[in-house]
Amino acid sequence: MTIIMTPYHVKVAAEAFAAGLFAQAGCDVLVQYGADQPQYDLIVSRRRVIKRVSVKGSQEGKWGLAQSYLKNANYRAAIDSWLSIQGEDIIFCLVQFKGITLGECPRTYLATPKEIAEKLKNECKGRGATILYEDHVWTDRAVGAGTREKLPDSWRFSIERLEELMK
């Protein structure tokens, strides 16, 4: 049975799970408790490299990242506006609870803001989108009809991915 959490519970669970994963991967972790902290939720360090981590949890198969920047249906400008406020040393940790039952681990991904912006700009047949999808097929009524949006397998949380982003 899939557990449906409130948005608050999704944020708390995502941050706690992400902190645990980084610690398991050998990182020192500083936790900023309380949802909706400015710019980042965690600070992680590994081999003297320090990064800020913005944790985004979801139980819907997607993460709304740039929709508050959308004006006049200009998706690319919204993505650029979103990207412009992200720091150079930020890593996004995307935590997905969709289809996860109690006690199972959520699917987790790591990406830079630039990688996310590039992915968002290529969605919906290149028109761009403000929502990042884990795995989504556009319906016949959408601009992106017939196309599939899927996060790259290379974004999955792994030691290799973490080391790549901690350079």
How large is the count of helical segments? Answer: 4
Structural class: alpha+beta
What letter string, H or E per element, gives the SSE order? HEEEEHEEHEEEH
Q: Number of domains in the coordinates? A: 1
Poorly predicted runs of 5 or more residues: none
Topology:
Elements: H1 7-24, E1 28-31, E2 42-46, E3 49-58, E4 62-64, H2 75-84, E5 90-96, E6 107-111, H3 113-122, E7 131-133, E8 135-137, E9 148-150, H4 159-165
Parallel strand pairs: 3-5
Antiparallel strand pairs: 1-2, 2-3, 4-7, 5-6, 8-9
Overview of the structural elements:
The chain is globular, with a radius of gyration of 16 Å. 32% of the residues are buried. The protein is an alpha+beta fold. The model has no long low-confidence stretch (mean pLDDT 90). A hairpin with a 2-residue loop joins β2 and β3. It is built from four helices and nine strands, in the order αββββαββαβββα. Strands 1-2-3-5-6 form a five-stranded mixed β-sheet. α2 runs antiparallel to α3. The chain has a single domain, classed as Trna Endonuclease, Chain: A, domain 1, CATH 3.40.1350.
In short:
The protein is an alpha+beta fold and 167 residues long.
Features:
4 helices, globular, five-stranded mixed beta sheet, two-stranded antiparallel ribbon, 167 residues, 27% helix, Trna Endonuclease, Chain: A, domain 1, 9 strands, alpha+beta
